[in-house]
Each structure stands twice: as structure tokens, then as C-alpha cells.
Amino acid sequence: MTVVKWVVGIAGAVLVTANLYDMVRALVVPRPHTSGPVAVASRVVRNTLQAGVGRVGSFAARDHLLTTLEPAVMLLRLGIWLSAGLAGFALIIWSTGNTSFGHSFIEAGSSIFTLGFATENHPAPEVVAFLAAAFGLLVIALQIAYLPALYDSFNRRETLVTMLESRAGTPAWGPELLARHHLVGIEGNLPVFYGEWERWSADVAESHTTYPALIYMRSPHPTNSWLVGLIAVLDSAALYMAVCPTAAPAEARLCVRMGFTCLRDIARAIRIPFDPDPRPDAGIELPFEDFVAAVARLEQAGVPLERTAEEAWPHFQGWRVNYESTAYTLTNIVFAPPGAWTGGRRYPEGATDATSFPQRPVDRRPDKPEGDRVQSA
């Protein structure tokens, strides 16, 4: 074997080994994987596609395109891993056999895809062909195992998001969540509700840092969003503790704590900077006037307020400062639906995506079948 073939063979072995490490690190190791050529390529392609989708003026058209974006990125990753393996094994086959360079790629492809129509009658290339076949099976097996785990996490996430529609409307809004519970007299369910969302936040923190693709996967309903839903739940808990400190359950505090911990874990996974210990008087983007209107809405719904809007504002601000900036950055990155109190978006000039407040269902009763519709904002 010549020096050139030795160098080429070593380069092929390094390429295959690095490719296997990158694949196992991304699909098997339960920690965020944001480095490596495949992760970088996925990020570049995702950002490029999002920049193109961001120029679409219609929310419906943009949402339709974004639903297919992350699956396309996942297929890209699979293609990169297979292509890198094909190139690596082709280099090894060429360095250990007597075939031409072009035919080495044919042999590598025949082995990786387990076709077996092209092999060289020589012990060394045949051993490499077996290894290449094992590599191909490993890639497909890991992908087969990866997709069910991914969609299982997605389904667990979407269950509570879908249930939130009847409690907080769509897009979900924190003040509406509190108002609806008091309007129908089920505020006693809020401790259990906040406990469920605390566990949900812990589950999302684990799954979305292990599988970052979940961050960009959209809900089946265009106006639902895991991120908008989480912001609404955190806002409702923070609002409840601010205006009704005695009546607010302890579970509300735990929910907020786990909620902003979840957002920060996701931010670390995709390298979004944030202040880990903000001052309660650092200020938030939400205007005070919007807060006053929300408190008035709660009073109209019959919530027994213990503080005025002016008294409650510093307390609400002290809670929201822990998650607002991170949440706003994430909603902008994933093009979340334009829900109330969820920050701005990178929409093109002239886009028609106005902030959307949830609409109340018509209240139909036997004595008034035509019903009444009360606006939530």
C-alpha cells in the first residue's frame, strides 16, 4: 500500500468514526448537541429557510410552510450522516483494494444500503463492506428509534396545550385563563392545574433539550402553540400572585419557577443569552397600561382582587422579569402565533398578523338559546 493510500484510508476511517460519534451524540446521548458539522449545517439550513418563510406576509401561508420545515431539516441530517458514511467507506475501500476511485463509491453505496451488487473479490474490501453494511443498518435503526421517541414527547406536550384551549382560549392568554375559571366557578381547580403545568414544564425542559427539533415543531392547530401556552400559564400564575397574594395557591409559585427554568434550559440548549438572576425592578416590555386593562378584566369577571393594579404591578413585574425576555426571544425564533403578551415577531413590512386575543364561546342556555358572546379584550 502506497503512502497516498495510507493517508486516504486513515482519512476515511476518521470520517466514519467522527460521523458515528456525531450521530450517537445527537440521537442517543440525552444532552443537548449543538456542535459538530451536522448540527451546524442543520442550524444554517433552518435559519436560511426561516428567513425565507419570514418574508411571507400571510400567517396562514407562513404557518403552513413552517410545519414542514423541521421535518425537512431532520431528513437533511439523515442525508448528511449517510453521505459522510458513504464518502468515508469509499475512501477506505479505495485504499485497501485495487478498484478505481469511482467504483469505490459504488461498492460503499452497495454495502451501506445493503444491496450487495458490487463487491471486490479481495479480503480487505470485503471486511470493509461488512462494516459499511453494519453502519447503514445502524443509521436506519437509530432513526427508527429516534422518531417514536420524538413524537411521543411531542404528543405529551400537545395534550395539555390542546386542553388549554377551553381554559384560556386560542391563542392562549393569561388574564383570560384566570377570568374563565372565576366566571364558571372552577377556581378551586387552579392548584391542580398549576401542578400539572409544573410537571409539563419539567417534561418539556428534558425532552426539548435532548431533542431540540421539538422546539420548532408546530401544534396541529395553527393558533395553538406550546410556547404561547406556557407564557399564558406563567402570566396567569404571576398575575394571580400579584393581585390575590392570599388566595393564590402555592402551586402557582412552583409553576412559575419550573416554567422559567424550562425556558432557560431550552435557551442554553440553543445558545440564547439571558440574565440568570434579574432584579425584580429591572423592568419588562409589557406596558403598564396593558396590565391595568387585564386587572380590570379580572375585576369584571368577579375575581376578588386584594390589590389595585398600581399595587400589584411591582409584584407582577418581579415575577415576569424571570421569563419575559427569554420567552419573547423564543417566540420570535419559532414564529409563534401572534398571541397577546407574547412579544413581537420578525414579520415583513405590511404583514397582517395583528395581536390576537382569544374569543369567548357563545354562552347558550335553555332560557336564552341565542346566547351571549362576551369579548375577552
Task: Please provide a written account of the structure.
This protein has 13 helices and 2 strands. With 377 residues, it is mostly helical. It folds into 2 domains: 3-145, no CATH class; 169-343 and 356-372, no CATH class. Strands 1-2 form a two-stranded antiparallel sheet. Strand 1 (363-365) and strand 2 form a beta hairpin. The longest helix has 46 residues, at 123-168. The protein is elongated and about 85 Å long. The mean pLDDT is 86.
Distance between the termini: 78 Å
Low-confidence stretches: none
Q: How many domains in all?
A: 2
The rounded Rg comes to: 26 Å
- Please report the total strand number as a whole number: 2
> What gross morphology would you assign?
elongated
What's the assembly state of these chains?
A: single chain
Order of helices and strands: HHHHHHHHHHHHHEE
Largest sheet: 2 strands, antiparallel
How would you classify the helix and strand content by structural class?
mainly alpha
Range of strand content: under 5%
Approximate helicity band: 55-70%
Strand order, main sheet: write it out.
1-2
Number of helices: 13
What number is the mean pLDDT?
86
Short summary of the structure?
This protein has helices at about 5-25, 35-55, 60-95, 100-110, 125-170, 175-185, 190-210, 215, 225-245, 250-270, 290-300, 310-320, 325-335, and strands at about 365, 370.
